[in-house]
Amino acid sequence: MLTYVLAVLAACANAASSVLQRRANLGLPAEDSLSLRLIRALLRRPVWYAGVLGITVGFLLQATALSVGELSVVEPILVFELPLTLILGSRVFHARLHRREWLSVVGMTVGLAVMLFCLAPSGGNAQAVDGMVWPIGIGLNLAVVATAVLWGRTAKVAERPELGGRRAACLGVAAGCQFGLTAALMKGAVSQGGQGVAAVCTAWQLYAMVASGVTGMFFLQSAMHAGRLLAAQPGLTLSDPLVSVLWGVVAFHEQVRQGWWLLPAIAGAAAITICVAVLARSPLLGTEERRPVRARHSIVRR
């Protein structure tokens, strides 16, 4: 039960962070995605620091949840960041949630409950991962991230602003996959906790996790600026738990139910996917858009 509570609290912190970061992103040009100009502009906005604090708290709660529970349980619960973001955003941006949003939130809740009950993930040992699993898994994960980023970069947003949606979607997938890798490395680091704090601090996964998390944050900020959030949100929300579950089952040997249990589990996952797609098109995700596209050497002013 503690695992579920911590995961839900992490989703709440991430939702608060998303709203604060989106507020900080207002007025910044979409063409600054994948650019250090974006980071420099955000560093001048105090609300962005509050957003970073929120995601840091969520990160710590997620790490604690992973220290006591399975990766295949914790990460799917984090998809609740999306409906929680909408609910909080409705208060911050003074926009009312309609029946479509509430039904989707209920659908996600039921779908997640069915999926977790039917799969019943258990077991797993991040310390017992075979020597070559880490480099192979990290290599494959980064290859998917790089493919998504490269595909997004082919969209010339400065010349054709309508391609911002494709870039946002690709960068959203890249950020989600990178955060999935971060969660796997986090699980590997916290699994050393039984040997003491020193073992955690000297584990290579801890430092790889920090580098992966920073990279994921960079892709996330770029996705928020590349195009409309309704393009970025589905890939971001779904790729993170998908990659994390794959790490949990394939690398950490977490056990899930087999046989006919897979049919309702797949139905629950499908319900989550449909509800995420519906929520991602909520007008609340577009209340603060569109952002201007400016000449390359002009100066952003607030």
Describe this structure in words.
The chain has helices at 2-25, 36-42, 46-68, 71-77, 81-92, 99-119, 133-153, 164-190, 197-202, 204-226, 229-251, 262-280; strands spanning 122-123, 254-255. Helix 1 crosses helix 4, helix 3 (46-68) crosses helix 8 and helix 8 (164-190) packs parallel to helix 11. Residues 157-164 and 287-302 have low confidence and may be disordered. The protein is mainly alpha-helical. Helices cover 71% and strands 1% of the residues. The chain has a two-stranded antiparallel sheet. The protein starts with a helix and ends in a 22-residue tail after the last helix. The chain has 12 helices and 2 strands. The protein has one domain (2-286).
Summarize the model shown.
This is DMT family transporter. It is built from 12 helices and 2 strands; from the N terminus they run ααααααβαααααβα. With 302 residues, it is mainly alpha-helical.
Overall strand count:
2
Low-confidence stretches: 157-164, 287-302
The coarse silhouette is globular
Oligomerization status of the protein chains: single chain
Number of structural units classed as domains = 1
Strand arrangement in the largest pleated sheet:
1-2
How far apart the termini lie comes to 45 Å
Q: Given the structure, what is the number of helices?
A: 12
Mean pLDDT: 79
Helix-and-strand structural type: mainly alpha
Range of helix content: over 70%
